[in-house]
Amino acid sequence: VDNEVLGWFFFRYPQEVQVLTPKENLRRLELVKPFSIKIIKYLFGANPEMLSRVVQPIYGFQVNLPIFSERASGAGYFTAISDQDGIYRHALLIAGYPPPEKFRPGDDYYLFPSLSLEALRLYLNEEPVVVVNKINPTQAMIEKIQLGKFVIPVDEFGRMLVNYQGGYGYFPTYSFYEVYSDFAERRKEGFNPEQVFKDKIVLIGATAIAIYDVRTTPFGSMPGVYMHANIIDNVLHQRALFRPSWMRAFDLMVVLALGIIISLLYPRLRPIFSAGLITILIAGYLWFNFYMFDRLYYSLTLSYPLLSIFFIYLGITLYHYTMEEREKRFIRSAFSYYLSQEVINQLLSHPEKLKLGGERKYLTIFFSDLQGFTSISEKMEPEELVSLLNHYLTEMSEIILKNRGTIDKFEGDAIMAFFGAPLDYPDHAQSACLSALEMQTRLEELNRSWEEKGLPRLIVRIGINTGYALVGNMGSEKRMDYTVIGDEVNLASRLEGVNKSYGTKIMLSESTYQEAKDVIEARELD
Predict the structure, then answer these.
(1) Is the backbone of residue 314 left (phi > 0), alpha (psi -120 to 50) or beta?
(2) Mapped to the 3 state alphabet, what secondary structure does 10-43 carry?
(3) Where does 314-459 show beta strands of DSSP type E?
(4) Bridge-partner residues for 474, per DSSP?
(5) Which residues have C-beta within 8 Å of that of residue 412, sequence separation ≥ 6?
(6) For residues 90 and 218, what is the distance between their CA atoms, to the nearest angstrom?
(7) 126: pLDDT strictly greater than 90
(8) 3-class SS at 191?
(9) Does position 172 have pLDDT exceeding 80, yes or no?
């Protein structure tokens, strides 16, 4: 018979061949040597020694009886090697002898085909051609294996990434017993072995689970004979999965491109839309990956791009969260000197209310100034004066902040503040008036303690006005103040100053009185 292929297997590790004498191993080599690959093309200075460091080494042979081997048309090993996780994704199409540590320059080097490759050789009547390319001064790689018009895509080690089509039920399967023991009955049912097996590659193998020839594949567990069927199918239909050497660069480009897209678009989108963007990118890449796999038989990396999307999304989200918290801390720190804690908490919950630029708002403006402070300062030492002034301003500021006021600025002993911004509340006029009354009461308490220490008595004059003014961040791009401007501001300042003419300490405008008359007592001055 001129079309049968026998299977054999090899030992992968040196310790496995310790039971064999070198002479016996060489005898077995002689039985399979006729079926080694005849054509090896070395490109760019590659040589057998370089090749021996790349392909799977053979340390020993376990072959058929000589009576069978000497009469066989072909022989190929059925040794299969799984990936690190125990899954059989690759088909090892070639293996070499001797192993690299036993190879000496000038020795013959033999490449042996797998059972699947040898079966294809006989079926196509084409000798396999292994093309070896030199990649650096000491290393080579398997570029491709060609079988007539069929080019088998392999990695640098000579492994083909199997595109599994199926297992049980996918390939026609016939019981050996039915074929050979019941020809007559089967022929009556229309079964004709000659027609069924004509021009076909017939794999004879065990499918019983108890024989332990069961392999775990991405398609599920299946007998080893089905692995050979899938390998042969991949070559004949040119659908073996292809993962060229440039695919690593492609993976890197995809990761970088996705990272750039997310980094550019994510900050410009609201959270719900950014989550939608991530969903679209993941779904899009899954579809692209499946299309390349199903139609073009490219095995693209799935995990790295998806992980990059996840981690970039997670990183940007954490960054935004961190920056948001930092922004909140900044707001809390920056405004703690100007705003009450209640106002700061509301700003943190609604930062959009703190707008850049100005906006026209109805609010209450507050001015206070110490009477005769210039003459007082001339009679005191600078250190003593600063201590007194700081004590006064601290006490007065706490009252303003407690009543939800915003301190605009200090000008010497004068305080400018406003109520009703940046957050809106309808009783801002009442808050300003109550602050003025509380400041007068507190100043009387301070004066009593200061007089006991021999310090001068302080008198504060306050002017309050309510109306529309422009409030917001004003100044230059690099230096801004949150302040208020307008005619109503000027009126509040003049009310504070005119207290001197009327001999009063607090003066309100008519508009402020109308807003606060339910909570204060007041008299008309003029």
Answers:
(1) alpha
(2) EECCHHHHCCCCHHHHHHHHHHHHHHCCCEEEEE
(3) 357-370, 405-411, 414-419
(4) 481
(5) 373
(6) 11
(7) yes
(8) coil
(9) yes
